[in-house]
Amino acid sequence: MNIDDLKNAWNEDVSDETPEISIENKNKINLPLEKIRKNMRMEFWSTIAILIFGFAVVWIPVPEAPFKFKFYLTVLLASMVIVISFFFSKFFKLYKDISNPMLKTYDSLKDLMYQFDLNKQYYLSFMLSFVPFLVCELIIVVEFLPHREPLSDLHIAVTVISALALGLFGLLLLGKYWYRIFYGRYVQQIENLLNELRK
């Protein structure tokens, strides 16, 4: 077998393993991808707005709020910005990949599904990463907000632990629900198309 025969055999094998996706199927893929991109943009800008609002609320002139209270909340918000920046860097990578889709083959569609699965894990991690911030915020609020009577140690412990348990459960539920509503159903549409192409 000469080199030309080897080249032809190699090209035939590759084309057999990675079939082209038809234009009709590409159009079916583009609709859910555009919905995902739109939701990612909305989530990014709403997160920026919430952070700006958070910084503004902390530094609104309230005479009775001590400087330490404002300073601790500012440090907490700045730390949140660092964590959010890390996760959004992962989301931007996915956004960039689906903004210029090169979905010409079945394998590229499988790779996209792998990226969606990976970003789902990032998304849930993103929600759970707010647990330490919730703990710090609870401690700051308990320590600095005025109370009619001094809180007992037991009362403080029960308040912080119960609020943390509810907050953790709420964040997990919110993360799963938010992902399913804004991304999951569109990813499912792409996965259904992938299963059709597999047949």
TrEMBL record:
<keyword id="KW-1133">Transmembrane helix</keyword>
<keyword id="KW-0812">Transmembrane</keyword>
<feature type="transmembrane region" description="Helical">
    <location>
        <begin position="69"/>
        <end position="88"/>
    </location>
</feature>
<feature type="transmembrane region" description="Helical">
    <location>
        <begin position="122"/>
        <end position="142"/>
    </location>
</feature>
<protein>
    <submittedName>
        <fullName>Uncharacterized protein</fullName>
    </submittedName>
</protein>
<keyword id="KW-0472">Membrane</keyword>
<feature type="transmembrane region" description="Helical">
    <location>
        <begin position="154"/>
        <end position="175"/>
    </location>
</feature>
<feature type="transmembrane region" description="Helical">
    <location>
        <begin position="44"/>
        <end position="63"/>
    </location>
</feature>
